[in-house]
Specification:
The chain is mostly helical and 46 residues long. Helices cover 70% and strands 0% of the residues. It is built from 2 helices and no strands. The longest helix is centred in the N-terminal third of the chain and has 20 residues.
Length: 46
């Protein structure tokens, strides 16, 4: 089903976002996690 595939892909995007913003600097890690958890648009149209 299409919805299941989309859900899988969205989970993969979330994982990649978390991997990209990972930081050893505590303040940066906290700030980036706050932004990700807050949600909102992930992809913006051009």
């Amino acid at each position: 089903m299409v919805a299941i595939q989309i859900e899988r892909e969205l989970l993969a995007v979330e994982k990649q976002l978390n991997d990209v913003v990972r930081s050893e600097v505590g303040l940066l890690q906290d700030a980036s996690q706050h932004i990700i958890v807050s949600g909102g648009k992930r992809v913006r149209p051009r």
